[in-house]
Amino acid sequence: MFVIVDDREIVTAGYASAFEREGYAALELKPAELVDWLEIASPADLQAVEGFLLGVSPYRPAFPTQIKTRCPDAPVFALDDRSCLETTLQMFAAGADDVLRKPVHVREILARVGVYRRRVSQDDKGVASGDIEVFFDGRDPIVFKEVMELPRRERRILEYLVKNKGRRVTKSQIFNAVYGVMNEGVDECVVESHISKLRKKLRMRLGYDAIESTRYIGYMLKQPDRVVANAPNAELRSSTPAKTERVNIRAVALA
């Protein structure tokens, strides 16, 4: 989810619609509402934020520090109507991660978020979890060294799980990240359907179930018990040694 902050509804609504077309949820706020939202938002809502877009406002220089206090992992982008060296330097000094001049396509913003994620993770490529690598810039993930084409919702869920690798996340957290905290037109249970389809596709590619699900607790990416040399034939190989062992034991017994 992206948080778009601007006094002009035409700006927030325009970017929110553009993000939606790319499969990302958005929350539209006015500058006077941002600080209050940061204070009352739940940890789950804050964790769902992929980035902040800050339009021009007299309060804007104070926002990056306030945002980083509550959302230290979310990049902050300042959006300017025109280029101004003084304003750009002021926003960088205030803690903004980037300053962009409008109009800027949301795909460029997504690409910059991907660069930010890679820089934070100190990875020159994408962010990886075992045999799964995601990019956070609209590209499909690489799963077991091959690109896996996914519908945008499933891709976003996988990115969110990789982002939170090693941690269990709830259905509500995933829903907030993919559909947005203010979306009342979609039932939260849709997440279960998306994850079911995603699990099946990952299992076919990897040879093991990559998403661990615990009722009432949530979901988490998991690693295989052992390294799989050739995932598509994993089940066949794993069964062969067991059969051989049974034959050998029987042969010894007969002897």
UniProtKB/TrEMBL annotation:
SUPFAM superfamilies: C-terminal effector domain of the bipartite response regulators (SSF46894), CheY-like (SSF52172). InterPro entries: CheY-like_superfamily, OmpR/PhoB-type_DNA-bd, Sig_transdc_resp-reg_C-effctor, Sig_transdc_resp-reg_receiver, WalR-like, WH-like_DNA-bd_sf. Residues 1-117 form the Response regulatory domain. The lineage of its organism: Bacteria, Pseudomonadati, Pseudomonadota, Alphaproteobacteria, Hyphomicrobiales. GO terms for biological process: regulation of DNA-templated transcription. This is Transcriptional regulator. It holds the Pfam family Trans_reg_C. Residues 124-223 bind DNA. One of its GO terms (cellular component) is cytosol. It comes from the Bacteria.
